[in-house]
Amino acid sequence: MKVLIVGSGGREHAIAMSVAKSSKVDKIYCAPGNAGIGQIAECVPIGAMEFDKLVAFAKETAIDLTIIGMDDPLVGGVVDAFEAEGLRVFGPNKAAAILEGSKAFSKDLMKKYNIPTAAYENFDNPEAALAYLETAKMPIVLKADGLALGKGVLICNTLEEAKAGVQEIMMDKKFGSAGNQMVVEEFMTGREVSVLSYVDGKTIKIMSSAQDHKRAKDGDQGLNTGGMGTFSPSPFYTKEVDDFCQKYIFQPTVDAMAAEGRPFKGIIFFGLMITEDGPKVLEYNARFGDPEAQVVLPRMKNDIIEVMEACIDGTLDQIDLQFEDNAAVCVVLASDGYPVSYQKGFEIKGLENFEDKDGYYCFHAGSKLNDEGKIVTNGGRVLGITAKGADLKEARANAYKATEWIDFENKYMRHDIGKAIDEA
């Protein structure tokens, strides 16, 4: 079969790698893709938000299955555009993708269906938000309602910081229209855990747990980013936590979306906080996390195409989802200055070191082929260096060893990805 993957990041490279392992697939396309994806798929110059062009390409090329990797096209309704033309596509439709597209919607859903989450209030008026903050307990969390590339969340320790945050999100519109509405949420403490899942509208199958490192600098300092590294599984995601989440969070979320007339088919990413009062939902995403996909998918035993088709067909209950009994760690190699400002266009050297090395992966996020045929940096997050190991400590050592195989000017990374492993 022919498969089209929509997106251009490390997540899409990880998906493409899994798709390439499927015995069902003989041709992979990616729109628009990147230099790394181009080594296993044919990249086509169509943007992820160019729905008409994507649909036309899928029809002309007789694509059997399209996989949507990114949040923007999902929230924008790309799945609806494909389904309207009778094309098979993996991902939630627009009505279901609102689970990620609007934080206010998802918080109201959790409140209505008693799914554990932080106490909150929604605001569409900055003056009302400022008045509320005058009596609120600090620290507090401000979240832009819409999509903001993982950066629309501000943790404010003082009233002054919170007021500045309202100005930034709702008045200065730092995150654009994502800040038209804002969620003000109680600050939760505990261990963060990410859990990815496959969903077919009624059945949910949980993947291996993971943990992301969002802050740009070591010690969880600096600005929020799209993710500086991950590890899987999380030692903090115990059987007790899993039992609780299965009963009170995972299935109830799927059932709630169905009850709202928004049956969800695709990937639900649960961002969880393991608090003293038990696990609570921090956020939902409607697609694979990036870089979580880069540590979870390499450990998945199943044929990804079989699982995705089961989600589309409503037969996920027949899939026995299995993961390797090992661990993986991903360290993101970024451009120094990310996420604020950074230079691009530097040649990436050492990529050949990953060829034929079992258990080591170099996922491209911000790379491209230049006019001279060289692979150069083309983004803030450039590569995700992933390695497996028998356990998390071995995987972490392997991943950091592998970061030394790559070199480019202004290469930057955190040195403490998975350090929490040592404390578990």
Radius of gyration: 21 Å
Task: Return residue spans where pLDDT drops below 50 for at least 5 consecutive residues.
Answer: none
Structural class: alpha+beta
Mean pLDDT: 95
Main sheet makeup? 9 strands, antiparallel
Brief summary of the model shown:
The protein has helices spanning 10-20, 51-60, 71-76, 78-84, 94-101, 103-112, 126-133, 159-171, 239-259, 293-296, 304-313, 392-403, 420-423; strands at residues 2-7, 27-32, 42-43, 65-68, 89-90, 120-123, 140-144, 153-156, 182-186, 191-200, 204-212, 215-217, 221-224, 229-232, 265-275, 278-285, 327-335, 360-364, 367-369, 375-377, 381-389, 411-412. It has 424 residues and is of the alpha+beta class.
